[in-house]
Amino acid sequence: MRQRRRRLPSLAAAILAVLTSASLASPASAAPTPATESAQAGTCAAGDFCIWRYRNYTGTIGVIIDQPNGSCPWKLDKQSYINNTGIEGYFYSGANCTGRVKPVTHNSRGNIGFVARSFKHACVSCRTTDE
To answer: Which of 72, 126, 129, 130 could crosslink 97 through cysteines, CB 3.0-4.6 Å?
Structure first.
């Protein structure tokens, strides 16, 4: 008759004991700090144009995708953004691209300065200024 090995339960108990003692030794390390939460809130993947409901990259997050210049397809309720794309355009305070305007260039970020209700795709960097 073959004898069964009973090492597995004792090995699992030893691993559990090590993990439990490590988590009890530093309970504060499990909770994110305000700086960590802020950094996580402002995270937007390369190649994405992320928009947040509230200032400082907090609240619900959305993404703007590329559309033809001049189009105003986005109905929003957002206050901050990180643009890691080549997309440019204008945030507007009113629906259908009306009201106050905030220009957005490619690879930019910030608080919009008002609650943006719409976004129009346009080449902001293409505009020339009279000097």
So the answer is: 72
- Whole-angstrom distance, CA of residue 123 vs CA of residue 125: 6
Q: Is the pLDDT of residue 23 over 50?
A: no
Radius of gyration of the chain from its Cα atoms, rounded to whole angstroms: 25
List the strands of the sheet with 98-104, edge to edge: 58-63, 49-54, 74-83, 108-121, 89-94, 98-104
> CB-based contacts of 116: which residues, under 8 Å, 6+ apart?
51, 76, 77, 78, 79, 91, 92, 93, 102
pTM, whole model, 2 decimals? 0.66
* pLDDT band for position 30 (cuts 50, 70, 90): very low
Consecutive H or E run containing 89: strand 89-94
Exposed, middle or buried: residue 63 (CB in 10 Å: 0-12, 13-18, 19+)?
exposed
Strands 98-104 and 58-63: unpaired
**CA neighbor of 127 nearest in space, from 90, 95, 97:** 90
